[in-house]
Amino acid sequence: MKPNLIALTLALALAAPPALAWSRQGHQLVGEVAERQLSPEALAEVRTLLADEPEPSLAGVSTWADEIRAARSPLGELSKRWHYINIPGKDCDYMPARDCPEGDCVIGAINAQARVLADRSQPKQARVEALKFLVHFVGDAHQPMHAGHPHDRGGNNHQLHYTGKGSPEGEGTNLHGVWDYWVVQSAGLDDAAYADRLMALPAPADPALGADNPAQAWALESCRLIQAEALYPRDRRIGDDYLDQHRPLAEARLRLAGTRLAELLENALAP
Questions:
Q1: How far apart are CA 55 and CA 135, in angstroms?
Q2: Which sequence spans correspond to the domains of the chain?
Q3: Can you name the CATH fold of 10-269?
Q4: How many angstroms separate the CA atoms of 193 and 42, rounded?
Q5: Which residues contact residue 52 at a Cβ distance below 8 angstroms, ignoring those fewer than 6 apart?
Q6: Where would one find the signal peptide in this protein (predicted)?
Q7: Which whole-number Å values give the CA distances from 122 to 103, 127, 155, in the listed order?
Q8: DSSP 149
């Protein structure tokens, strides 16, 4: 590849829009990790529901919720706020009426779509859309900046300057975009190799197991990680050391998201 073409490719990658939470690869990894853990019965149900999809797998439909939002379709517009939750303050003190009015946040969306998927009296298309939403939103709930704070829109307004092997000359970005895209993509692995890497991680303990509202527990867990793991860098310039430092956390979140998604689907699709 010619040097100028390499530079253009890197520049376009750095410009990847933050709307694609976890990036395409990140969401596909959540879907793949979940699918590898499904029982044969649940997997058969998934295959039946997704039979008419261009890519009939959890990984294949994992970015559909972002795609309809980017296209500004009616359903995409309706679901814009379902991808995240913003909670004021550093203590992640969640108040449903304030932070998720009428269920209009990622917590409410996961719970609502899980009910639709589990209800076999619903039209098939509604259940298919619910499945596609769930694959995506469970991933979103585990990206810490998707449970961030309103003062900077979950890090979208926290501007950064990245200089590293991806862009030696430096590029402007923001904290949300770094977590959506760069922390995972900078590992340089293809989907299959990355999924193998995640599955080789120790089976994650689930501190939210048995929670009355698992989706709420997952999102608040993400929110608390922002402070606990010092995700806001000390200055506005970051390099590969920031990505390398936080990649293990991102990979742990992806692995846990896939495991939790598999459990959610088992419960919703049980005969």
A1: 14
A2: 10-269
A3: P1 Nuclease (1.10.575)
A4: 24
A5: 128
A6: 1-21
A7: 20, 7, 37
A8: -
Residue type, 141: A
3-class secondary structure, 150: helix
**How does pLDDT run across 106-130, given as a tens digit for each residue?**
999 999 999 999 999 999 999 999 9
Residue 21 pLDDT grade (very low, low, confident, very high; cuts 50, 70, 90): low
Reading the block at residue 228, the tokens are 């606990």
The two structure tokens encoding residue 251: 């990979």
Question: What tokens appear for 269 in the block?
Answer: 């699709």
* Alpha-carbon 203 to chain mean position: 19
Q: Report whether 137 contacts 31 (CB < 8 A).
A: no
DSSP codes joined into one string, 215-265: HHHHHHHHHHHHHHTT-S-SSSEE-HHHHHHHHHHHHHHHHHHHHHHHHHH
pLDDT band at 8 (very low <50, low <70, confident <90, very high): very low
Task: With H, G, I as helix, E, B as strand and everything else as coil, classify residue 114.
Answer: helix
pLDDT over 50 (residue 34): yes
CA-CA distance, 177 to 160, in Å (whole number)?
A: 10
> 3-class SS at 169?
strand
The alpha carbon of residue 235 and the mean position of all alpha carbons in its chain are separated, in whole angstroms, by: 26
Q: Distance between CA 252 and CA 201 in Å, rounded?
A: 8
The residue with tokens 């890519």 is: 55
**DSSP notation for 60-77:** TTTTHHHHHHHTT-HHHH
